[in-house]
Amino acid sequence: MSPTVVVRTSLQKKLGGYLADLPYASDMEMWLRLAAHGDVGFIGADQAVYRYHSLNMSSEPSPELNLLQRKAAIEHFLNGGAAMLTNDLRNWLTRQLALDAIVRASIAFNEGAIDTSARLAELALSIDPSVQHSRRWWFLACKKVLGLRGWQLVRPSVELFRSIFRNERR
């Protein structure tokens, strides 16, 4: 979130600020741009309090719009000032975005929004076709085979198994 970021003023002035045509992802694009020109550090502690309300720009009208805006931010970054970066970064960024689309498709499926789930899965494929070989894609496909009602019946067992598996890995 914006209040937790510290950037040199000279770099901010040199590279510019938010892009008005990306209202839901302009911060992401700007952070990518800034990170390409300096070191990035992370402090694993609370730095600010963020208040959510209905007028927050982060309250996107739809998951598809959020993903499309983030895709546009990544493309703007990669096609603009990030020419010196490798294709590995491009592939990684688009892969992560596609995986996030699958996560959102899976959540939509869980909520019974089957049409939204299908649109998000198609969007994931359009972002990175190789996402169909991921565990997340396979898991969503299994849920689709079970159907919403079948998934609702087995979901508690799957979540119990996941929690046990996570605890054993720690």
Structural features, described:
The protein is an all-alpha fold and 170 residues long. The protein is built from six helices and no strands. α4 packs antiparallel against α5 and α4 crosses α6. The longest helix has 35 residues. The model has no long low-confidence stretch (mean pLDDT 85).
Low-confidence stretches: none
Rg calc: 19 Å
Q: CA-to-CA gap between the ends?
A: 29 Å
Number of DSSP E strands? 0
**Structural class per helix/strand content?**
mainly alpha
Residue share in helix = 55-70%
Quick one: overall form?
globular
Mean pLDDT: 85
Order of helices and strands: HHHHHH
Tally of helical segments: 6
The fraction of residues in strands falls at: under 5%
Describe the sheet with the most strands.
Answer: none
Would you summarize the structure shown here?
The chain is mainly alpha-helical. It has helices spanning 9-15, 26-35, 63-79, 87-110, 114-127, 135-169.
Which tags fit this structure?
170 residues; mainly alpha; 0% strand; globular
Write the layout of secondary structure elements.
Blueprint: H1 9-15, H2 26-35, H3 63-79, H4 87-110, H5 114-127, H6 135-169
Helix pairs in contact: 2-3, 3-4, 3-5, 4-5, 4-6
